[in-house]
Design goal:
By secondary structure, the chain is α/β, with parallel strands linked by helices. The protein contains 14 helices and 14 strands. Strand 2 and strand 3 form a beta hairpin. The two termini are about 40 Å apart.
Length: about 400
């Protein structure tokens, strides 16, 4: 692991430093109004970076809920939840369990959820008796970095750990066949909605998992709230009734949900109890900030009263309008759109030109994406206006043309 980190530092540090110098990374804003932020030099820019796809992070009811929780319980109570916690946190988990139709546990981040669940899962401690306890972990190549980072920890518990190509279900079936012959259970790790765009082929994956007894661990952080009639996400809807014991889903309370933090949805109470008893970040670190708990309780109401369903439709309209203006490789609905540039230096120069014209977008390059596949990562939200999208598209086209002339 140390050698890999050293390699990444050597290969990527200069590019990250250049992006920071151009104001594309490691910067901040001093004020915001919708999707317009005021940058340190005083000029305004329309940002396409924030993952609050439904705009709930500035909803008045969430802000009121956050203030109310702080007024009642203070800023924080420094104690692990395995010892003592506040009643609203218990209420939140109960309401999320009902909303998502499972057993929900909250964490300060989705990464913290992974840290509690994945080692326990790799040990066989969350597997039902219907499957073999020896595990073979199979990562989708584009599974989120917060899961990939735990590979060494997982390897200490699992029988083997490997990686397959992105959405390569044939490779997954080959792994399942090999695992079956070796007396192992495949645990497949993937995203519901990938952070760089695109979806998991869920219907085909579910069919394959049922055929071979594959355990699914799916990170639906980017799908939470923007899919499902009540915002239950892109993954949960694959099962009408109870969640199978072989499916574990992580969700975000940030992004579409509008707050902060995340959590895990487990099929049964015994699995949830085991995470509470043996999950490292559950037993030895603090819960959600109280302001987040208060805001999240209000967000749940918006998920059940029809507000989120209405906002989902508005989001799809914004994405459709963007797709009319900008050509991307997108085939599925996602609020994340990628404009592939290729050359890293050109991508950073393009991001800088856009910023000069008042549009701030993420420039993704190695190690976020492979060499030679640098891209603009565009995050769309309901609080983008058509005029802002049109302005971005026009500026993007003009900037790409200008760079091509000087190449």
């Amino acid at each position: 692991m140390a050698r890999n980190t050293k390699f990444v530092i050597g290969e990527a540090e200069a590019g990250i430093a250049e992006a920071a110098e151009l104001g594309l990374m490691h910067t901040h804003f001093t004020a915001r109004d919708g999707r317009v932020v005021t940058l340190p030099d005083g000029h305004d820019a329309v940002e396409f970076i924030n993952c609050s796809y439904l705009g709930l992070d500035t909803h008045p009811k969430l802000i009121e809920g956050a203030k109310r929780a702080v007024d009642e319980f203070g800023v924080h109570f420094c104690c692990a939840r395995s010892r003592l916690t506040i009643e609203p946190n218990v209420q939140l988990e109960a309401q999320l369990s009902e909303l998502f139709r499972g057993h929900a546990i909250t964490f300060p981040s989705v990464t913290a959820a992974h840290m509690s669940v994945l080692p326990t899962l790799a040990s066989g401690g969350l597997l039902p008796s219907s499957v073999r306890s020896r595990t073979r972990f199979v990562f989708d190549k584009q599974a989120h970095a917060s899961m990939q980072f735990l590979r060494p920890v997982i390897a200490a518990e699992a029988n083997s750990v490997t990686t397959i190509g992105h959405n390569d279900l044939q490779a997954l079936e080959d792994e399942a066949k090999a695992a079956d012959a070796a007396g192992e259970t495949v645990v497949y790790l993937a995203d519901g909605v990938y952070s760089m765009g695109g979806l998991c082929p869920l219907p085909e994956l579910v069919e394959l998992s049922e055929k071979w007894g594959i355990v699914l661990y799916l990170d639906d952080a980017h799908g939470t709230s923007i899919f499902g009639r009540q915002g239950e996400g892109s993954v949960r809807g694959a099962w009408d009734g109870e969640l199978p014991e072989t499916v574990i889903i992580t969700y975000s309370l940030g992004k579409g949900f509008g707050c902060n933090g995340g959590g895990v949805l487990l099929p049964t109470k015994w699995q949830a109890d085991r995470v509470r008893r043996f999950g490292m970040t559950y037993g030895f670190s603090a819960p959600l900030d109280f302001s987040v708990v208060g805001a999240a309780l209000e967000a749940v109401k918006l998920h059940t009263d029809g507000t989120v369903e209405r906002l989902q439709k508005e989001l799809r309209a914004r994405v459709a309008h963007f797709d009319e203006q900008v050509s991307t490789d997108a085939r599925d609905f996602s609020p994340i759109r990628r404009v592939v540039i290729g050359d890293e230096g050109v991508c950073r120069s393009l991001g800088a030109r856009l910023l000069e014209q008042g549009y701030l977008v993420s420039t993704a390059f190695f190690p976020v994406v492979p060499r030679g596949k640098a891209q603009l990562r565009v995050c769309l939200g309901v609080n983008h206006t058509d005029a802002q999208i049109d302005g971005f598209a026009k500026c993007l086209a003009e900037s790409r043309a200008a760079l091509a002339r000087t190449a």
